[in-house]
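Exercise 3.2. Students should predict the tertiary structure of the chain below and write it as structure tokens, then compare their answer with the key that follows.

Predict this chain's 3D structure.
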Amino acid sequence: MKPPVIDTISQVLDSFSDVVRHYAPDSTGPTPGRFVPVSSVPLHDALAATLTNLHPNGFFSHQAHAIGRLLAGEHTVVATKTSSGKSLIYSAPVLDAILREPDATAIFIYPQKALANDQAEKIRALAASIPQLEATISRVPHFISRYDGATPKEVRATIREQASIVLTNPDMLHMGILQHHHLWARFLSRLKFVIIDECHAYRGVFGANVALLLRRLRQASALHGSSPTMVATSATIREPQVHLEKLTGESFTCIGSDDDGSAQGRRRFWMISGTDHFYDLGRKAALELAKQGLSVLAFCPSRVAAEVLTSRVGEASEPFVRVYRAGISAKDREAIEAGLRDGSVRLVFSTNALELGIDIGALDAVVCIGLPNSMMSLLQRAGRVARAGKEGGVILIPADTPIDSYYASIPEELFNRDNEPLALSLDNKRILRGHVACAIKEAGGDAASLRLDLLGDAVAKVVALREAGALEDDIFYIDEPHSRVNVRSMGEHSYELRCDGDRLGDIDDCHLLREAYQSAIYLHGGVAYRVKDVRKGERMIVLNRDFSGNRTTPYIQKQIKLKACRSVKESPEVGVVLAELDATERILSIVEKNRSGSPVKTIPGSGGTTPHRLPTEGVQLTIKPSLWDRYVNDIGAPQSKAALEACERLIASMFPTVSGPCDPQDYSSSSTLRSDGSAVITLYDNVYGGADVTPCAFQHIETLISNAIRRLGDCQCVDDAGCFRCIKNPRAEETSSKQACLSLLNRIHRAITADNLRTIELHQTTSGEATKEESTCPACQAKQRADARFCDNCGQKIE
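Answer key:
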């Protein structure tokens, strides 16, 4: 008989002599379920009979509550624990509607195709177990059907004609359904339910796009005469009702954690570190657990890290190890998911792509190689184990970074946090204008036909500006605006990755500059390739296999230009600005290193890779000359510049302590010395047009600086040059001084907390762009922008 999972994990960790346990509380659970009879919910008799057979104990109490609300027509969000039966909550009302009205339809929207694949089989099995629907499913092959990019073109028309339940994703909802909604007239005219699964995934740029997509779906439904009920689900979301109302524009009922009656398995956490690099410790722990027969999911901090770790294990020729990340082919992805379910794959190194609720079998252990940057992410990852009453363990391994070291020193703070609020802004002009153009096209090409009551105020403002002639964006004047809108980004298109004519996957513009630039060694599926050619016109990366075992690193220069201020806080020595920015990144050089880390080649310049320009938003902290000059005099010019750059990295690393859910790739930072004698540290969204990620640093700048000071003071390294857990730069040989950094941070903190730090109110122009305080023309007294050089009224020069 196999020993209990938690005992096996504990024994494996005990076998590592050099491991320190920072946090290992007693296990939680198991928790018994609270049940109510199926008959307590007014379901169709045939469905109630089937569910009674399948669930003899009845519904969990929250399931019954939520299903009752949905049957009553209330838009409902369900925010209960992982593995709490949320798919049954939305499946039951849909099947009830179809049993009562055979022409009824429903659309299930998932953030990833893999989730739709998984859920399609479940809903099909449930429907087939109902005698009244079994014959229909046999007779109508596409009664329940996926409709996504992998759906063969030859069956798409049949799906539109036959399907009662369609499972899709935002990309296909945009391009395949709403763009051609007249072809979906039958389906949309009978639409009863819209299911929004894993709704916490809809934040940032993706969330803004989906919010406008859902409003367009409501408009398309109304154009065809229906008004569907919406149901959303998530296991890890703060203020779910607020988020869903912002996401959809509708009022929602919430079934939350207080209502949760689900049964939960026994789960235990460990936070450990060792003398090995955290990559090596994570790889060693995950591999040993898999060798003990456990199924293991190892979350990695980046796609490159996942590939590197897989390649290192691959050298040991372990056949049960795979890598899972964005960019792999659909065939590889589905093979990995199937392997986890049947046991042929026991260890997967993954990015956060597997955080969502894909059914990948009964996982035993999760290893987080690097701490999750949000409580929401931590709970999602932990929710991959201890499902369906089974037990499981979660091993957390802090990275050698300031933010992970901060939580390793005070792990209770990590686990005591609430779920963070989700960043979802509908103010991004580029996103809004793209969706408005699509909505107009869907309404027959006439803006007067738009359902602004459904599309919302943000859309109405853009429409008003367009009607007033204030917007000249070309997207309003092209035949197919849908092709210009990418719902997962800002319209930037992907590059195909090809080797010997075979398509390996895709990569976007942002990752291109860091991973697949000219001459780069690119890892895919644990296999190394050399970038032979970047064909921008064809949007293609040509790869060759590489057997050198080397790695390449680009050194990137960042230039930040302030375009417009939104809010300003100032004191005589420090300024904090919330602003619209232009960030330009270019490769300065490429260094190739061998397995031991020794440089073997340096390629000056970019190798032909073009700079990446990013209009965005962010926060700039300006250290004014009065403070900076004194600091330079005390510390010295070379040391002060190094300290500024080290403080920038430290502040950026600590940003997740004050932000909502974000990943390291969501934002970036820069520091520079200006010609006016000031020094500037910038945090900015790594997203075209901004995604409302870094602006929260404007309000929380004091806490952010305080946390940076605390991390520097708590670090146990004895060398004044610091370590990777505080100020040392892992990408360069340069050194700074802990004392110099601490001195600068303390001076900034004193200036920020001074009583004379004041907020300057900014005004809004008719286009919605922020301007500085108004000035007055000395000749005619007309009001002017503060940065105006000449009066708009009389032409007088303004001093």
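Discussion points: Confidence is low (pLDDT under 50) at residues 763-774, 782-795. The longest strand covers residues 551-570.
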